[in-house]
Amino acid sequence: MRILERWLKKYVRYAIPADQLAERLTMLGLEFESVERLDEKYHGFIVGEVKTVSRHPHADRLTVCDVSTGKGTLQIVCGAPNVAVGQKVVVGLVGATIPKNQHDPDGPPFVLTETAIRGIASEGMICSEFELGMGKDAAGIMVLDADARPGQSLASYFDLDDVAFDIEITPNRPDWLSHIGVAREIAALTGKPAQLPTPKVREGRESIRSRLSVTVLDAKACPRFAARMVSGVRVGPSPRWLQNALRNAGLRPRNNIVDITNYVMYECGHPLHAFDHALLRGHRIIVRRAKTGTWFTTLDGKDHELPAGAVMVCDGEREVSVAGIMGGANSEIGDSTTDVVLEAAYWNPSDIRKTAKALGISSDASQRFERGADPNGVRYALDRAAALVHELAGGTILRGTIDVYPKRIRERLVPIRVSRTNAVLGTDLSKGEVTKALTSLGMQRVSAEGDRLRFCVPTFRVDIGREIDLIEEVARIHGYDAIKTTTTATVNFVHQFPASSFGDALRSFLIGQGYQEAITNSMQTEIRSSLGGATPVRILNPQNQEMGTLRTGLVPGLMETVARNLNLGSNDLRLFELGHVFRVDESSAPKLVENFLEEERVCLVLTGLVGPVHWSGTSRKADLFDLKGDVQDLLAKFGLDKSRFISYSTTNGLTDDTLALEIQGSYAGYLGKVRKEILRQFGVEEVVYVVELSVAALQQGTPRPFVPLPRYPKVRRDVAFTIDANVPAERIEETIRATGGELLQGVILFDVYEGNPLPPGKKSVAFSLELMSLEKTLTEEEIEAAVSRVVAGVQTTHGAALRGTQ
Amino acid sequence: MQSEIAALRERAEQEIRAAADPRLLEEFRVRYLARKGLVALLFDRLKSLPPDEKPRVGKMLNELRAFIQHLHDDRAAALAAARETPPAAIDLTLPGRRRFRGTKHPLTQTLDEIKSIFVAMGFGIADGPEIEDDYHNFEALNFPPDHPARDTQDTFFLSKNALLRTHTSPVQIRVMESTPPPLRVIMPGKVYRNEAISARSYCLFHQVEGLSVDKGVTFSDLKGTLIAFIHQYYGSSTRYKFRPTFFPFTEPSADIYISCFICGGKGCRLCKQIGWLEILGCGMVDPNVFRAVGYDPEVYTGYAFGMGIERIALLRHGIDDIRLFFENDVRFLNQF
């Protein structure tokens, strides 16, 4: 909201410079976003009177005008069609900066120079509303009121010798959405009182009740509804002071009646609405909820289907206003209006919020009502508006006020303990200091029994109902800076929080393996989140369909990252991500929220070379075994001995050559080569390898106990077999381990070969056997015996032929 | 005899220098060490010495022979080494064999720095789900239904009751539901807001939430702890201010601003000419939050705080576009 310095000073006296005021109130919690001197832009603009207008000799559409500026006369070439003798106009003098350029609407301001236009000298410029940055009208020059004085500065004509503050309120302080609200805060700062003017209402003889009846059918939605009436008014433009005040506060002047309702709202914070009495059928007002399927045209000309339960102000036959949000086109004030009904009500905030949200309307009124207006500010607002209507639009104020207020909302009496205040804040405040802070905000102390005080809180402070709310006010006024700082604390280390340390260790390990950590968007298109086959969680109100679901796995996000990097020429990629994935799950697996299953995963992707290109020519393309090796290292690092890889020959998933990883008998994830069809979806032509694992599964490792170092040397024997090519290496190794006996400590596959001179369908596999005893140095006989057992075992189990031992 | 030994030793030391090639070295060996060499001649005279002198002089002669042999051998080794053809010079300017370097995401780095400071101050670390229910994300945190405060956090909904958490504060609730006081914990994680994506905002970001609950915890403790954090993280000369604000789940509440670490408060592009940067929100835990988790607000008080990791990382590294964090361009990641 925009607050004007001159307007503020009507309610509170103070002498704090604008910048300081902004800083001090900001430090009280009322954020001043900007401070703007309104006349800054308008140096060198004055009022002129057009004395003569003649055709430009060399241009049909231009005129040459003599414009009196009080002290002298300027010759100005003008292009506007509406310029006429006798007009009071805005003259930009040579040297003035014109805020907007008609020929370049989005361009920068420009400085006016003395110039000749088509051969005729022009000593200034007659400006349009648009050029002045005061409105959209660019069609013609701005014509001022007849009482404008030639030579008068534009700033003085428009009351621009003022400062405008843009304030940003927190949702708990709707009372700040008015000049009196800000003035009250200044009062708390300075100790000088803030006061609204007392309206002088001179009523006529006729009673409002003879002209209007009000029925409230839903007192919960509408705890208070009040109305006044002024008859015989003349609707027209507001006087300049009122127009200026509204314009400078960022509102558009309309007509005197509507302007008054806006002015009073900006003054005291209570929204008002004005109806044309003649358009209220049956001269009745009924407050009720909308019937479903009703359409309604608001006064901005838009048609709305009313949401179920919307609270409406109706006349005898139809809806005339969306309560507390926006009036209707069917009853608005127009030029022919003579009798005005002024409405001031108090609406239930939650009703206003629901309806405003459903209609997609955020109006000055709805913003105030949904945060909470002052139920007891209704009469003041009505009286103030009625008095102003009488003053500015004439007519007679009808006798009496209709005020349907069945259950008075009283000021709250809120207790506060001085001891509790100090216990929360860490202060040492006295009873007097607490009292002084709160009374400076207009709260009255009604009782003081020992430590326990009670304060009467005005109803415009909707945020205060509890002791802690008062403690906050004390802290604010006392000043956060004045609260001392404690630099020691008691640390309690009873609770263990298991989170995050495993993630940290996992990250460190992967970074050590040369992987780069990525963080990708967890929201993605359904095509992506469905890739893995899980049912994705849908977002009901996504920003767009590209982000319509939550990821069910980490591969698609990293594949997008791979694609982006490849397109940018980064070809060798080793990336990982650690993050949550989500899916709809109807199984009995434990879930925190509904049927949404959430788990943490880690994903690695690998493409391109295994290492940077080197002059020695040692780099090569990464393959599946690079990734498998990294996973094996990971399993070793985290003590996951009870794990195994299982080959999947067929797959519906994302990868070919897929290996599933099982840890302690349960599925923990998979690795493989990303399938061609999937690559194509991401526009990737390179070969990409991925692994995705459950983080919970990786956490099952147990630390290995220390094993004393053997005192005897180990010996190595190599054995090579010729064997059917389709026997998996792992099977052979299992046989070796099973037959080697306890002396066999290690088995290393060091060569696999197919081709000449081996017959087709055969391969050669060569293993290093590591043999060792914990008790003694092995004899040659013992070694031979163990190797023979292994050879025999492999020969009989797999039909292998021994190629040799060494 | 003694002086002759010393003289010969000196002479050998002189002459070995002249043995510049194998032939000269052989002459040296023959002259001193051969069966009829100078050393042997001295040994021959040993017999004629009185018996009580023999052992002493004998020892000296042995040492002399060993010394000269040593001179000879060293020289021989040096000549042999010199005789070998010198190896082709290695071009040591050739680049070394490197490996791809792993990198921690800049957001993780920032978070780790923050975590380490709070861990040193005795905070544990907890986490919670990203899919939350209305109760944990809003209601238990004292956001009444249909309250305008909910508008400050544009929410992605998954069902009538389920949503993507808009802040890490629901973890406070989950931690307190499962843990009796006192406690002291920080809670990092991803949060989601339905905000248009631009250089300044993204639809998800990371927060660190902090919570400390005990008997006798005050606003004064809140200030002390967070000022300690600011001084550790931003440097001890950093100025700060606590500004009153509103959060539904804390009261009193504050936004913390620090003096801009680029311009020191004079005003620059980073701080938008204000000289101050907003980095943290905090406050005393609202009694309604304690009631929701079954803590007695008359017995326990506490403070909570929260900060956005992206914002801190952006400021710290002078990055001008938040989207860079989520694009994972390796040319970006390599810089950290």
Largest sheet of chain B: 7 strands, mixed
Alpha plus pi helix count of chain A: 20
Mean pLDDT of chain A: 93
* Percent helix range of chain B: 40-55%
Task: Bin the strand percentage of chain B.
Answer: 15-25%
CA-atom Rg of chain A in angstroms: 42 Å
The chain pair with the largest interface is:
A-B, 96 and 89 residues
Distance between the amino and carboxyl termini of chain B: 77 Å
Question: Which strand order spans the largest sheet of chain B, edge to edge or round the barrel?
Answer: 1-4-5-9-8-7-6
Helix content of chain A: 10-25%
Shape label of chain A: elongated
> How many β strands of chain B by DSSP?
9
Structural class of chain A: alpha+beta
Q: How many strands of chain A?
A: 42
Short synopsis of the structure:
Chain A has 806 residues and is α+β, with helices and mostly antiparallel strands. Chain B is an alpha+beta fold and 336 residues long.
What can you see in these coordinates?
- The complex is a heterodimer of chains A (806) and B (336).
- By secondary structure, chain A is an alpha+beta fold.
- Chain A has 20 helices and 42 strands.
- In chain A, helix 11 crosses helix 12.
- By secondary structure, chain B is of the alpha+beta class.
- Chain B has twelve helices and nine strands.
- In chain B, a hairpin with a 2-residue loop joins strand 6 and strand 7.
- At the A-B interface, helix 7, helix 10, helix 12, helix 13 and strand 30 of A face helix 5, strand 1, strand 2, strand 4 and strand 5 of B.
Quickly list its features.
heterodimer, A: 806 residues, alpha+beta, 42 strands, elongated, B: 336 residues, seven-stranded mixed β-sheet
Q: How would you summarize the topology of this molecule?
A:
The complex is a heterodimer of chains A (806) and B (336).
Chain A (H helix, E strand, L loop, with lengths): L1 E3 H4 L9 H9 L4 E7 L7 E11 L7 E6 L4 E6 L9 E6 L3 E2 L11 E2 L3 E3 L2 E3 L1 E3 L16 E2 L9 H4 L5 E6 L10 H12 L12 E5 L5 E4 L7 E8 L8 H9 L7 H13 L4 E4 L7 E6 L5 E3 L5 E3 L5 E4 L4 E4 L3 E2 L12 E7 L2 H11 L4 H8 L6 H16 L2 E4 L2 E3 L7 E6 H8 L5 H9 L4 E6 L2 E6 L9 H12 L22 H12 L3 E2 L5 E2 L1 H4 L19 E2 L4 H13 L5 E12 L11 E12 L16 H14 L5 E6 L6 E9 L2 E9 L1 H7 L6 E6 H4 L16 E10 L4 H12 L3 E10 L8 E10 L8 H19 L2 E5 L1
Parallel strand pairs in A: 14-25, 15-18, 30-33
Antiparallel strand pairs in A: 1-13, 2-13, 3-4, 3-6, 4-5, 6-11, 6-12, 7-8, 9-10, 16-24, 16-25, 16-26, 17-24, 18-21, 19-20, 21-22, 22-23, 27-29, 28-29, 31-32, 33-34, 34-38, 35-36, 36-37, 37-38, 39-41, 39-42, 40-41
Helix pairs in contact in A: 5-6, 6-9, 7-8, 10-12, 11-12, 19-20
Chain B lengths: L1 H15 L5 H12 L4 H9 L7 H30 L22 H15 L3 E2 L5 E3 H4 L24 E3 L4 H10 L4 E10 L11 E11 L4 H16 L5 E8 L2 E10 L16 E10 L1 H7 L7 E8 H9 L6 H4 L2 H4 L3
Parallel strand pairs in B: 1-4
Antiparallel strand pairs in B: 2-3, 4-5, 5-9, 6-7, 7-8, 8-9
